[in-house]
Design a protein that fits this description.
By secondary structure, the protein is of the alpha+beta class. It contains five helices and three strands.
């Protein structure tokens, strides 16, 4: 019975129907949240402190703001000791163990869990940085 009759074809939506936000509140709310997310992400990126070698050396109180940029971009991975000394200056400390490393004090970071003062540890192998670690100075 039904097999002999052809099935009616559905009318295809046009492309403009997918992007018509005039009467669809759910789509309007979603678009507003998406635009707010893009705007917030852009503003956060613009106001983050970028790494500046002169500021790192002369104003240590701003290191906590710049260290995120250093870590996110892996700025010193594969850098030589001389490159690190040129960019960051003389290290504040070194591990006393057999680990070849430089330690730079970063200071207190603004966070929800109070980790205390932080330090940036650069670990060297064959005169090149192989690992960067941001850790609490209380360790």
């Amino acid at each position: 019975m039904f097999l002999n009759q052809p099935t009616p074809k559905k009318k295809r939506k046009s492309l403009k129907d997918y992007f018509d936000f005039r009467n669809n509140q759910v789509n309007q709310v979603g678009l507003i949240f998406f635009l707010a997310f893009v705007l917030a992400t852009t503003l956060i990126y613009q106001f983050n402190e970028r790494f500046d070698s002169e500021k790192w050396k002369s104003q240590p109180s701003f290191r906590d703001e710049m260290v995120d940029d250093v870590m996110d971009r892996n700025l010193f991975i594969n850098a030589t000791k001389q490159d690190v000394l040129d960019q960051l200056g003389k290290p504040n400390d070194r591990y006393t163990e057999d680990i070849d490393s430089y330690i730079y004090y970063v200071g207190e970071r603004a966070s929800f869990n109070n980790e205390g003062p932080m330090q940036l540890v650069l670990i060297f192998e064959n005169n090149k940085v192989v690992k960067m670690v941001l850790e609490s100075r209380n360790n």
